[in-house]
């Protein structure tokens, strides 16, 4: 029985119960040990008490610093202009009164009063008088929660307190306070970057970051611009230029508030980095005040912003009754960010024998952090359905001649809103001349049974008979044949991929071959393209093969696509050198939706090649300051003109709209040399590639950037998504678009495509099919870029538009020069 007892003792010892332990020890040991035991107990007790005291002082008594930011309304006081100047005697006098009022009600609560350190009045605005303040508290940790609770309930606090004084000097109401980061309140004492501006009637007021545009904005700074307008006005604020540090968690940022207090529940927007020109940077307030703050970290040199604001009368009502056959309506001030705390109701009524539908052409009602499934903050509501988030064009149809559209925005964070139209239609023929989706949307008749789901519910692709250009899926869908065997399940039941998938315990090579899993990474190229030997060892050198990446040192590594992926794979780092390519300057998402128009700066490597008197003839890609990559067939002799003569050509860079060739950001260059591939065959279009040298280097900018050239071993697998861009003109002539077009496309299985194109493909060609775009869209130019977005977000040139109409069309594969198989030649010619 002795053994179990020992174990008991051991276990009890862990519990730190000195009294019980001592009893057991007393029983066992002789008397002499009692003394030692007592000493031990006393020691343990002292330790315990010390520990408790240390804990008490460290964690219970040492106060937590808390700052609350807020505002309140003073009812019995008239506003003076001098209240906008915090150094004026009038300001100081009223601030003193408000401060003592705030002190008064803070001290009327035993949860708040004892911990109040100080209150600072930061600003006043009109209406009657609104006072903005922050209050600092030093509160023991264990009282923190009750303080928070009492502060959140200040409304009742004020009510309790006001009547207690028979003649309160200031009658206050609408007191609000929100906890804020103490550092923001502390640095607010530093007045070096604090500005107060009042809108002037009928005038635009401009302000900038300190030093703009000649010097970067300060580091470690906290700047405030308090913007005010007359009572019953609201403020419209626009950032004309904005260039901050790229957004990360601790990067510099601007926050705009619909209040003079920088509190999160009234934040309108957080801005960082830079924005594509299509992104609207105009913000509306719901009151006559706005606060712009700039918070910067300790490093970086960026220009900052230039902004302007003006006042406009407050909207009386939003929405209204809309009658007639059709019409349009938008959120207030569209495309500016709609004001917060706004409710609009549109009652739409079309002639009584018709039905009505609403088509939302643009829809941006996105709240950061709010799932679009809940729509708890800002939303559009029709009947009982709420819509929010960012949505592509959609239609809501009613079964009668009336429809009610509601719009609600809450106190914080706004977006650009929506632009909608309402249309009346005959219930018997809702889409005259067009096909009607079951959702009510009208689409072009040619989109019916073409293999693409144009109706979101797929109703355009039901009950179709497949053509001989189409593959019949097991589930009945018809899909273009070129989507067969591209590793993408287009049918939905995978039946387009069944005939070419590999058995369960085998590996599918990039070229489609199946090999047993056991032959993967065995050092032998079983696939024939090396894809079974890629990414086998991490970082170690492997014997050099055709398909292994060769570092500058001559060592080879086994990793697929190691170039510029942000990881150092070569010992000498040569895989990460010369990586200033393939990145857009405007990282923020473009807001051009619907259609294939590109935004300014979206494809900064796109070049337009013009011939004097003929305009835009071919596209090209910028790959360095002086070199372009284009197609050899652009420079063939045609109708007696020697297009290979460099002096005929002019290159336009940074161009989006052909009509805007004199734009400030557009760069033009003369051509020094044109080198076409010596094996170019003008009958088969094999080796359709050329490199073009500019007479003088271009200057990289937000709209002019080079694209990355892939290594010859780079893998662009079948089924990969790529982008093609161009103005849609071809050498053969024909007028193109004036805005740069884009289309998302996908690599097609080479053998499938070769069959569709009756054996015309060579290993220097690759075949793509379009994924997005209308039926008769023509996006892409001979010589123009086909780019892939790699996992690192960097873009690589995968191909050059060659033949197959040059245009990317829905039901025709396009043929591109395969860059990887021509890569060594490019290097020989350009050194790149
Ligand atoms: C603010 O008030 C102070 C003190 O009266 C005065 O010196 C200063 O010029 C005023 N500032 C402005 C911008 O009016
Ligand atoms: C943003 O919206 C405002 C207000 O409607 C408009 O004046 C401005 O041109 C818009 N800016 C852009 C870039 O669309
Ligand atoms: C809204 O509800 C009414 C009555 O229930 C119905 O007739 C109408 O079609 C509905 N409208 C929409 C757009 O769903
Ligand atoms: C291409 O299609 C053929 C069948 O036509 C198939 O055998 C091959 O595996 C496919 N290639 C790829 C890469 O999937
Ligand atoms: Ca379709
Ligand atoms: Ca497929």
UniProtKB/TrEMBL annotation:
InterPro entries according to UniProt: CUB_dom, LDL_receptor-like_sf, LDLR_class-A_CS, LDrepeatLR_classA_rpt, Peptidase_S1_PA, Peptidase_S1_PA_chymotrypsin, Peptidase_S1A_matripase, SEA_dom
EC number: 3.4.21.109
Domain spans labelled Peptidase S1: 592-831
Similarity-based family: Belongs to the peptidase S1 family.
Protein name as catalogued: Suppressor of tumorigenicity 14 protein homolog
Membrane topology: Single-pass type II membrane protein
Organism: Buteo japonicus
Reaction it catalyzes: Cleaves various synthetic substrates with Arg or Lys at the P1 position and prefers small side-chain amino acids, such as Ala and Gly, at the P2 position
Alphabetical keyword list: Disulfide bond, Glycoprotein, Hydrolase, Membrane, Protease, Repeat, Serine protease, Signal-anchor, Transmembrane, Transmembrane helix
Disulfide bridge map: 437-455, 449-464, 466-478, 473-491, 485-500, 502-514, 509-527, 521-536, 544-556, 564-579
CDD domains: CUB, LDLa, Tryp_SPc
Main function: Exhibits trypsin-like activity as defined by cleavage of synthetic substrates with Arg or Lys as the P1 site. Involved in the terminal differentiation of keratinocytes through prostasin (PRSS8) activation and filaggrin (FLG) processing. Proteolytically cleaves and therefore activates TMPRSS13.
Transmembrane segments: 34-57
Active site feature: 633, 688, 782
Limits of the SEA domain: 64-182
BP term (GO), one: epithelial cell differentiation
Compartments, as annotated in UniProt: Membrane
PANTHER family listed in its UniProt record: ACROSIN-RELATED, SUPPRESSOR OF TUMORIGENICITY 14 PROTEIN HOMOLOG-RELATED
Chief place of localization: membrane
């Amino acid at each position: 029985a002795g053994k179990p007892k020992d174990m008991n003792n051991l276990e009890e010892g862990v519990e730190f119960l000195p009294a019980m332990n001592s009893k057991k020890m007393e029983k066992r040991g002789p008397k002499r040990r009692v003394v030692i035991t007592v000493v031990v107990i006393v020691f343990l007790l002292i330790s315990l008490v010390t520990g408790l005291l240390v804990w008490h002082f460290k964690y219970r008594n040492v106060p937590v610093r808390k700052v609350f930011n807020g505002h309140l309304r003073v009812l019995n006081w008239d506003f003076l202009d001098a209240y906008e100047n915090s150094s004026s005697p009038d300001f100081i006098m009223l601030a003193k009164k408000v401060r003592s009022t705030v002190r008064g009600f803070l001290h009327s609560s035993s949860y708040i009063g004892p911990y109040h350190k100080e209150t600072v009045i930061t600003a006043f605005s009109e209406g009657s008088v609104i006072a903005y303040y922050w209050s600092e508290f030093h509160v023991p940790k264990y009282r923190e929660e009750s303080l928070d609770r009492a502060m959140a309930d200040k409304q009742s606090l004020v009510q309790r307190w006001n009547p207690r004084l028979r003649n309160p000097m200031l009658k206050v109401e609408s007191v609000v306070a929100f906890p804020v980061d103490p550092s923001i309140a502390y640095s607010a004492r530093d007045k070096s970057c604090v500005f107060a501006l009042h809108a002037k009637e009928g005038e635009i007021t401009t302000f900038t970051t300190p030093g703009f545009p000649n010097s970067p904005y300060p580091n470690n700074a906290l700047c405030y611009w308090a913007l005010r307008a007359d009572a019953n006005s609201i403020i419209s604020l626009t950032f004309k230029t904005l260039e901050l540090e790229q957004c990360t968690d601790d990067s510099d940022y601007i926050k705009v508030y619909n209040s003079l207090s920088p509190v999160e529940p009234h934040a309108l927007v957080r801005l960082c980095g830079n924005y594509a020109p299509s992104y609207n940077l105009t913000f509306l307030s719901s009151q006559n005040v706005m606060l712009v703050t700039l918070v910067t970290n300790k490093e970086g040199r960026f220009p900052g912003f230039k902004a302007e604001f003006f006042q406009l009368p407050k909207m009386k009502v939003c929405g209204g009754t809309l009658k007639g056959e059709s019409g349009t309506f938008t959120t207030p001030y569209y495309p500016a960010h709609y004001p917060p705390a706004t409710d609009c109701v549109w009652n739409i009524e079309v002639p009584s024998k018709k039905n009505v539908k609403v088509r939302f052409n643009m829809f941006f009602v996105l709240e950061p952090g709010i799932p679009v499934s809940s729509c708890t903050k800002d939303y559009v509501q029709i009947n009982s359905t709420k819509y929010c988030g960012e949505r592509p064009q959609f239609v809501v149809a009613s079964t009668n001649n009336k429809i009610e559209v509601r719009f609600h925005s809450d106190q914080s964070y706004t977006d650009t809103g929506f632009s909608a139209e309402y249309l009346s239609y005959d219930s018997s023929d809702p889409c005259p001349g067009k096909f009607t989706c079951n959702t009510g949307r009208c689409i072009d008749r040619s989109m019916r049974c073409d293999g693409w789901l144009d109706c979101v519910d797929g109703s355009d692709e039901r009950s179709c008979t497949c053509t001989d250009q189409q593959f019949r899926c097991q589930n009945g869908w018809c899909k273009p044949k070129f989507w067969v065997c591209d590793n993408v399940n287009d049918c939905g039941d995978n039946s387009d991929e069944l005939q070419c998938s590999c058995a369960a315990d085998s590996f599918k090579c990039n070229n489609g071959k199946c090999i047993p899993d056991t032959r993967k990474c065995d050092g032998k190229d079983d696939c024939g393209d090396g894809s079974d030997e890629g990414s086998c060892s991490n970082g170690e050198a492997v014997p050099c093969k055709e398909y292994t990446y060769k570092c500058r040192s001559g060592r080879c590594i086994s990793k697929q696509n190691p170039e510029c992926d942000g990881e150092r794979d070569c010992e000498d780092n040569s895989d990460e050198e010369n990586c200033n390519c393939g990145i857009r300057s405007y990282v923020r998402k473009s807001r051009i939706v619907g259609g294939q128009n590109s935004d300014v700066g979206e494809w900064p490597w796109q070049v337009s090649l013009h011939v004097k008197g003929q305009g835009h003839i071919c596209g090209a890609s910028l790959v360095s300051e002086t070199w372009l990559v284009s197609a050899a067939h652009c420079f063939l002799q045609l109708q007696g003109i020697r297009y290979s003569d460099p002096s005929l050509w002019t290159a336009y860079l940074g161009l989006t709209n052909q009509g805007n060739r004199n734009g400030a950001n557009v760069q033009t260059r003369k051509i020094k040399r044109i080198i076409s591939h010596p094996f170019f065959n003008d009958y088969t279009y094999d080796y359709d590639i050329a490199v073009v040298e500019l007479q003088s280097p271009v200057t990289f900018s937000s709209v002019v950037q080079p694209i990355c050239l892939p290594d010859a071993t780079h893998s662009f697998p079948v089924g990969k998504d790529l982008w093609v861009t161009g103005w849609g003109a071809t050498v053969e002539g024909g007028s193109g678009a004036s805005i740069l077009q884009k289309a998302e496309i996908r690599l097609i299985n080479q053998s499938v495509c070769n069959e569709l194109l009756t054996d015309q493909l060579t290993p220097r060609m690759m075949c793509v099919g379009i994924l997005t775009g209308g039926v008769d869209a023509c996006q892409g130019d001979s010589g123009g870029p086909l780019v892939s977005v790699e996992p690192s977000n960097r873009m690589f040139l995968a191909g050059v538009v060659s033949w197959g109409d040059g245009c990317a069309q829905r039901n025709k594969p396009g043929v591109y020069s395969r860059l990887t198989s021509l890569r060594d030649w490019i290097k020989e010619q350009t050194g790149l």
